[in-house]
Amino acid sequence: MLPTSFFLLISPVQSLTYSSSLAPSSLVCKMNVSENAQKLHSKMLEYAPSHLFDQEQLQEMVNITSPVEFMTLAQELVNSNLVKLMKQGDILKFQAKAVAEANKISAMSNDEVMVYSYIEASGREGIWTKTIRAKTNLHQHVVLKCLKSLESQRFIKSIKSVKNPTRKIYMLYNLQPSIEVTGGPWFTDNELDTEFIDSLLTVIWRYIASKTFPYAFQPPSSNVNVVQSSYPANHTGYVNLDAAMEFITSNKITNIELGIGDIRSLCEVLVYDDKLELINGTMDTYKATWQSVLEAGYGRSYLEEGSKYADMKSVFENPSFSIFENNSVVVQEEDEGAEDMVYLDSWIHQ
Question: pTM of the predicted model, to two decimals?
């Protein structure tokens, strides 16, 4: 319920009580305020719209020491809907309203103001019509009439919540619903858009895989080492979240606005699917797994091409030679076919 009386804390030992006339009930009052009231309102507008002032701050702004004089200014501004009274704990606070907003409220009926105030207080979460009825204690017919009037003037709008799709929720017309209400970019018409998610997962995986295995998505060629299609272990040019975000934005993959958190969520899904790995020692840099490349139908030509090269296994299994011994000599085997064996030095320099 809206309060019927407001208290100004003048000093620790003195308080004044505003009667219900301070509440926005005198809505038909024209915005005729004194010069001092205009000056105070202008100074309040220099701060952020959400800024809350206490009485001492406002008195200092216009250099007023008399509580009675300040009460008169506050009365003018509240009656003209230029100032909104709010309670923060047990302390009364003042919030400036723009002139356009004040004019809008002044044109409403008392019931409409009451309904509008609760919708405004709900912010980007919105408020259910049943909750409005409970808070205002107005008849359902009156509430619906107020909502229809406010909506027709584009002061409010109805939205749908993914958590409660059957409820009719209202919020201010100029606000965007929060992610908790809309479900974020992954929901379309209050339903999980699996097709959109899958397409983004594919795009991100393909981009990261191309930066992990640069030759895996093209046929083997003479100038490509087919047995080494990945980067060396000390490579640092893998894809981080910022790079993935830039790729999606610059290539206009989607017209839905995505944030870094959304890209991170997609990458985490790919990690759970064993398609990506988080680079050790990093928080947001990823590389693709070779298995995911093979499962997607790429990279197999490199396996086939690599098998055409000479099998070096017999060389390393030669018991007469060890790479861990200095100045070791390879004993030439007399077995059949030994003359066809190619050793490392001659193989490199051939």
Answer: 0.53
One-letter amino acid of 350: Q
Residues 142 and 251 placed together within one structural domain of the fold: no
- The radius of gyration of the chain's CA atoms, rounded to the nearest angstrom, is 36
Total domains present in the chain: 4
CA–CA gap between residue 227 and residue 214 (Å, rounded): 13
Q: Answer whether residue 1 is part of any domain.
A: no
| C-alpha–C-alpha distance, residues 154 and 141, integer Å | 20
Same domain, 197 and 176: no
Q: What is the pLDDT along the chain (350 residues), one digit of tens a residue?
A: 444 334 443 322 223 233 333 334 333 344 567 888 888 888 888 888 888 888 888 888 888 888 888 888 888 888 888 888 888 888 888 888 888 888 888 888 889 989 998 998 888 889 999 999 999 999 999 999 999 999 998 899 998 888 888 888 999 988 888 877 777 788 877 778 889 999 999 999 999 998 988 777 776 666 666 555 667 777 788 999 999 999 999 999 988 888 899 999 999 999 999 999 999 888 899 999 988 988 888 766 655 554 544 455 555 555 555 555 555 555 555 555 555 665 666 665 55
Amino acid found at 71? M
| Selection from 313, 309, 269 nearest residue 292 by Cα | 269
Rounded CA-CA distance 80/88 in Å is 22
d(CA 156, CA 162) in angstroms, rounded, equals: 19
Please list, in sequence order, all residues whose beta carbon lies within 8 angstroms of the beta carbon of residue 92, skipping any fewer than 6 positions away: 6, 7, 8, 9, 54, 55, 85, 86
- Do 250 and 203 belong to one domain? yes
Secondary element (H or E) of residue 195: helix 194-212
Domain that holds residue 41: 6-103
Same domain? 19 vs 92:
yes
Please answer whether residues 126 and 151 qualify as being in contact, where contact means their C-beta atoms are separated by less than 8 angstroms.
no
Q: Which CATH number covers residue 151? A: 1.10.10.10
